[in-house]
Amino acid sequence: MKRFLVDALCTATLVVTLVQDAQPAAPADGTHLLEQSRARYSTLRSYADTATIVTEYRSAPNAPTLIERHRLQTRYRAPRAFFLQFDEDPKAGAERFVIWCDGGDFQSWWSATGVHEAYDGGRGALAFALGDQPTRGATVLIAPLLFSQAQMKGPLTILRNARLEGTESIDGRPAHRISAEAQETYANGYTLQSRAAMVWLDQQTLLVLKLVLDTPRGTGAGMVDRTTVTFEPRVDPALTDEQFRFAVPGTALSSATETRR
Fold it and tell me: How is domain 26-254 classified at the CATH fold level?
């Protein structure tokens, strides 16, 4: 009987050990942290940031590297109040692109064309897609995280193979440094473009403090196409209705019910 109890106890201990060993690894890995960060944005009551976007481009090994510095500001209040303004580097043309929603339809305006567009019928995501090119990708950085139900794509939603590389301070804020692959794919799963990425997440809030998208893989030797975005995010700031309105140049203050031009 005593031997039976000892054997039973050993067997139970072994089972418990095997079950414990089968449990998932500790969640402090890159993929888990990115998932937590995306979930954090989707639950924010309000959000605001200012950001600097630095683009570096070199077309050939011996060509000069063109460096531009753009400015971005974003404001959000749940469920859909939104404002984004992209200001292009004056050396590149000083164009401005704005997306806003004060409770009705999403609207956009681009200084290069002077076109003011309203996106009715649930087409708000189109404003962000059309603004991708003029803003060096700024319109699809944070908005897809804030409006997760819209299932918009952006650099921070397509990261794969994330790996926690350590910690680093960004402007005095301790951050998780995560390496990953940013993979753009067609609907059939074919990879259109892949590039190495690095993301820094604030250790306290899990919001993005910095993002680097390196030169796409397969680009010719010596060529450069790199984007670095540095954010100064604010969690749940007090925002007024006025901060979600925009006066289209040459018109009165625009509201979400204005007739599309």
Answer: outer membrane lipoprotein receptor (LolB), chain A (2.50.20)
